[in-house]
């Protein structure tokens, strides 16, 4: 992934230089669930480096279809430079039961802290 990293770094830097406030990495088209762990880490690392250099915001997709793994991925982003939020996949089952008594919120599960917030949509 050598030249791909260079291309990604150049592209992210160009976006920020053109006025973007930040980068959303491995997110809306399925990269968070489709990429291998090493690939996802490489993309996140490159984007974090570029965002840190330009004092820009980084949002990272960290959701999976496995609750425990999703929680672990979100927690792991807490120490990544420039990460201000993370995105989660919300299975339809979660959306259906999220209002039910006894269903834990991301904050109750310890996913959110002052560095990283889990963002979900219903």
Explained architecture:
It is a single chain. The protein has helices at 2-17, 31-34, 37-53, 67-76, 92-97; strands spanning 22-25, 57-61, 83-87, 118-119. With 122 residues, it is α/β, with parallel strands linked by helices. The protein has one domain: TIM Barrel. It has a four-stranded parallel beta sheet. α5 links the parallel β3 and β4. α1 (2-17) packs parallel to α3. The protein starts with a helix and ends with a strand.
Which short descriptors sum up this protein?
TIM Barrel, alpha/beta
Any idea what the shape is? globular
Low-confidence stretches: 106-122
Instruction: Report the β-strand fraction as a percent range.
Output: 5-15%
By DSSP, the count of extended strands is 4
Q: N- to C-terminal separation?
A: 35 Å
The CATH homologous superfamily is termed: Aldolase class I
How much helix is in the residues?
40-55%
Which structural class matches the secondary elements? alpha/beta
CATH T-level fold name: TIM Barrel
The side-by-side strand order for the widest beta sheet comes to: 1-2-3-4
Largest sheet: 4 strands, parallel
- Series of secondary-structure elements, N-terminal to C-terminal: HEHHEHEHE
User: What is the count of helical runs?
Assistant: 5
| Mean pLDDT over all positions | 78
Any idea what the radius of gyration is? Answer: 15 Å
Which architecture does the CATH hierarchy give at level 2? Answer: Alpha-Beta Barrel
CATH domain class:
Alpha Beta
Query: Could you say how many structural domains there are in total?
Result: 1
């Amino acid at each position: 992934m050598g030249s791909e990293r260079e291309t990604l770094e150049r592209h992210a830097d160009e976006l920020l230089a053109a006025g973007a406030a930040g980068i959303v990495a491995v997110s809306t088209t399925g990269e968070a669930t489709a990429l291998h762990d090493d690939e996802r880490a490489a993309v996140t690392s490159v984007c974090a480096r570029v965002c840190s250099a330009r004092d820009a915001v980084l949002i990272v997709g960290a959701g999976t279809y496995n609750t425990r793994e999703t929680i672990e991925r979100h927690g792991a982003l807490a120490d990544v430079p420039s990460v201000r939020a993370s995105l989660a996949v919300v299975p339809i089952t979660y959306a259906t039961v999220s209002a039910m008594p006894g269903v834990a919120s991301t904050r109750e599960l310890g996913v959110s802290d002052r560095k990283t917030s889990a963002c979900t949509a219903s």
